[in-house]
Design brief:
With 493 residues, this protein is an alpha/beta fold. 51% of the residues lie in helices and 12% in strands. The protein is built from 20 helices and 10 strands. The chain has helices at residues 13-37, 53-61, 80-83, 89-92, 108-117, 123-142, 156-168, 178-185, 187-200, 216-237, 268-291, 308-316, 334-337, 343-346, 368-371, 377-397, 410-422, 432-439, 441-455, 470-491, and strands spanning 41-47, 69-73, 101-105, 146-153, 208-212, 296-302, 324-328, 355-359, 400-407, 462-466. Helix 1 (13-37) packs parallel to helix 10, helix 2 (53-61) crosses helix 10 and helix 5 (108-117) packs antiparallel against helix 6. It is elongated and about 85 Å long. The protein starts with 12 loop residues before the first helix and ends with a helix.
């Protein structure tokens, strides 16, 4: 793209001045429309060192009420903590709320292209990063985000002149980094890498706009007009359905819930013996996964009163409390609801070597949100593929993803509900919502079967825990966790 880039003819100063006034006013007028439409806008500024990204950003945001935007500066290397998270983590936690702008002073591009420029990134890693970036940008736009990407382009000569001018002034010398100087010395090599990246991530839903950045006001006009056009188009398209993508992940076979026998039991003596053995093994494995920096994500879904809590307690009973956290997932908070539905789960991912246990998960999108009308049909139909992509991102990162469906029958649930209702110390466990959900048992069963069928991938399969006998379910869960962690540890020296 950069190599084929042909500059637009720059208008005269008076024309730019007039058009800038119009474009600034138009951008200012979009603020309330964005708020009313709940349109989140993610604006990414990339480009050459000293190309003027920060200067233009400062001018653009002057046209926006400070309550409607935030700025994220991502030009520093990831921290040690961020390096222990998935590649996309530190960027996704910064995405804007509905109805607001988020301006990124560089985003995921810099981390990738820096890696290639300095020889710190393999071709395999580069390809993986590109897939991740294209996937998340598509997911964001599919879920109502406007993603605007600008690359500020200047020549080698222009960059050199600007760097020299900045260095000559003691008040601006600090703005010139060693990386900027290195980039200018290796301009042609960097140009090849930047061009490759732009080509690899240029998509119709999130295209690149190359900005002629030689003149500051001309650059501001280009950015502001493109931004206005993008917002106008996004507002017009906001009510359109998004195409449902075909699944490209290999699935494992999964029986229907009604075909799973629930007569599995274990004696009390065997339960106590196996519980002690398995918890001992898990205790040892926890030390090993910490040493080998293997992240573990254990997901629990299941019927109300199926025994998820007791099952989780037997897992955590074998773990060092400093190395795990349990996330009980309830209805999203307002600030969570205002973002991509996976955002609150990205925020809760563990560091390498740690364990995150989710008591209910992102699968709420295709169960409760589907059945209670909290999202559109187009939303939950898209979610199967989005969830598979999310879990693939986690497993590619190196995480062990273990998903449990805790299964009981309707009669067992009724008996447990009744027991909770009639036992004072258990009454906090039963709510009116539980009884309402029970009335929709058949609808939920249909949705669950579809969920299991469409998300039982080879890299993140489902395990059904037959939980009429809670002891049996606990032992089975422990056996699966121990087995999966042993296999993961064997792969890492």
């Amino acid at each position: 793209m950069l190599k084929d880039y042909v500059k637009m003819i720059r208008p005269d100063s008076e024309f730019i001045k007039t058009k800038l006034q119009e474009a600034r006013a138009e951008l200012s007028g979009y603020q309330m429309k964005l708020k009313e439409a709940k349109l989140p806008v993610m604006v990414i500024f990339e480009g050459w060192g000293a190309a003027g990204k920060g200067s233009v950003m400062g001018k653009v945001i002057k046209n926006i009420d400070p309550r409607f935007f935030q700025v994220a500066t991502m030009d520093t290397a990831p921290t040690d903590d961020e390096r222990r998270r998935p590649f996309l983590y530190r960027y996704i936690v910064e995405i804007p709320e509905a109805g607001k702008f988020k301006f990124f002073d560089t985003c995921w591009m810099k981390e990738v292209t820096d890696g290639l420029c300095h020889g710190d990134m393999s071709e395999k890693t580069y390809a993986s990063r590109i897939r991740s970036i294209n996937t998340i940008e598509r997911q964001l736009t599919d879920n109502g985000y406007l993603v605007m990407k600008f690359f500020f382009h200047i020549s080698k000569k222009e960059q050199s002149s600007r760097l020299d001018a900045l260095q000559e002034d003691k008040n601006t010398r600090w703005r010139v980094s060693e990386d900027d100087l290195w980039q200018n010395r290796h301009y042609d090599e960097c140009l090849d890498i930047f061009d490759r990246y732009l080509e690899d991530t240029n998509r119709s839903t999130a295209p690149w706009y190359i900005i002629d950045a030689k003149n500051s006001k001309w650059a501001e006009l280009q950015v502001t007009e493109y931004l206005n056009q993008g917002i106008d188009t996004a507002l017009k398209n906001s009510s359109l359905a998004v195409p449902i993508l075909q699944n490209t992940f290999r699935m494992k076979q999964m029986p229907l819930l009604k075909d799973i026998p629930l007569d599995k039991t274990i004696s009390d003596d065997e339960y106590r013996t196996r519980l002690k053995e398995l918890q001992g093994e898990l205790d040892d494995l926890h030390n090993e996964i910490y040493r080998k920096k293997i992240p573990v994500i254990i997901c629990y879904e299941g019927w109300d009163a199926a025994g998820k809590g007791g099952n989780i307690k037997r897992i955590t009973g074998a773990l060092d409390p400093r190395g795990y956290i349990v996330h009980p997932i309830a209805s999203p908070e307002p600030h969570e609801k205002a973002r991509h539905y996976l955002w609150r789960f990205w925020n809760r991912l563990p560091k390498t070597g740690h364990v995150a246990i989710f008591d209910r998960t992102w699968y709420g999108r295709v169960m409760v949100e589907r059945l209670e009308g909290f999202c559109s049909e187009n939303d939950w139909q898209r979610a199967y593929n989005e969830i598979n992509e999310f879990e693939k991102e986690l497993t590619d990162w190196g995480a062990v993803v273990i998903k449990f469906w805790v299964q009981i029958d309707s009669d067992t649930q009724l008996a447990r509900f009744t027991d909770r209702q009639n036992t004072p110390e258990k009454q906090w466990k039963i709510t009116d919502e539980d009884w309402r959900n029970r009335e929709k048992w058949d609808l939920y069963e249909q949705a669950i079967n579809e969920m299991l069928f469409k998300t039982n991938t080879s890299f993140a399969p489902w395990y059904v825990l037959e939980s009429v006998d809670k002891h049996y379910a606990r032992i089975k869960a422990l056996e699966i966790v121990v087995d999966r962690l042993k296999k993961a540890c064997r792969k890492v020296k």
